[in-house]
Write a structure and sequence with these properties.
Layout lengths: L8 H6 L1 H7 L11 H4 L15 H8 L9 H22 L3 H12 L16 E4 L11 E4 L4 E3 L4 H4 L10 H8 L15 E2 L2 E2 L1 H23 L10 H37 L5
Helix pairs in contact: 4-5
Subunit structure: Tetramer composed of two alpha chains, one beta chain and one beta' chain.
InterPro entries: Casein_kin_II_reg-sub_N, Casein_kinase_II_beta-like, Casein_kinase_II_reg-sub
GO molecular function, one term: protein kinase regulator activity
């Protein structure tokens, strides 16, 4: 609002969406096409979600001409921002909206992953709830498949419902070439070069679980996304076969022993 404080009402109305997109803290938003905003089908149900809905819509679509006091205008402005955010969540999962968000993603407009092992992979905004006023926006990294808080306090206050819980997954369904190769790099805690025992044990367990999952997916001919370490898994498969044979042999021995000992017990003898 301060950027247009010296402009006339008509000039302000003409530039509302430009002002909103260019305002500090709104860098995560893309511009919604006017024809999408004027199609009432795309706004179904929002009239009950937004106060002063019609005035807010007029302001967003640059046809606002209501003569009102400053307090009323401020309330309509707040409703317009909320309306734009709710429509934005619907728009970014359309073909045109995905294309616009893709351009911002390629330029890392949403930031880069703070995890060192992800090597500054670009992030995507997402919500953890589709209901407004519940959770703030988070940032999703497709390489480590984890979410993070925005660095800037200006972005930390954005409602997560303005991006929704599905957008960051839909964009990779539409553009599968964007799916990054998952990294197997992990930080290993060490003391003077030696692995910390408890952490090392946890890492070994996690690696075992991950490798088991990759083996199952590979047998099902499902792409895992992990490109490195396949040779290690093949060697592990051979070791697992040997271990399985040893286990089977031990089980057969126990069963055979049980078959000998059970009759002796039944006869009242000492096993």
């Amino acid at each position: 609002m301060d950027d247009f404080g010296s402009e006339s009402d008509s000039d302000y109305a003409s530039y509302w969406r430009d002002w909103f997109i260019s305002s500090r803290g709104n860098e995560y938003f893309c511009e919604i096409d006017e024809d999408y905003l004027t199609d009432r089908f795309n706004l179904t149900g929002l009239n009950t979600e937004v106060q002063y809905y019609q005035h807010a819509l007029d302001l967003v679509t640059d046809v606002f001409d209501l003569d009102c006091d400053d307090d009323m205008r401020e309330m309509i402005e707040k409703s317009a921002r909320h309306l734009y955010g709710l429509v934005h969540a619907r728009y970014i999962v359309t073909t045109r909206g995905l294309a616009k968000m893709l351009e911002k993603y390629k330029k890392s407009d949403f930031g880069k992953c703070p995890r060192v092992m992800c090597h500054s992979h670009p992030l995507l905004p997402m919500g953890t709830s589709d209901l407004p006023n519940m959770k703030a926006v988070k940032l999703y990294c497709a390489r480590c498949e984890d979410i993070y808080n925005p660095k800037s306090s200006r972005h930390a206050g954005i409602d997560g419902a303005y991006f929704g819980t599905s957008f960051h997954n839909i964009i990779f369904q539409v553009y599968p070439a964007l799916i990054p190769t998952k990294s197997t790099e992990r930080y290993i805690p060490r003391v003077y070069g030696f692995k910390v025992h408890a952490a090392a044990a946890l890492i070994r367990w996690q690696n075992t679980q991950r490798d088991d999952m990759r083996r199952r997916l590979r047998k099902m001919e499902v792409e895992t996304g992990f490109k490195d370490g396949e040779d290690d898994i093949e060697e592990d498969d051979d070791n697992d076969i040997e271990e399985d044979e040893e286990i089977v042999g031990a089980v057969e021995l126990n069963v055979a022993t049980a078959g000998v000992l059970v009759p002796a017990v039944e006869r009242g003898g000492v096993a």
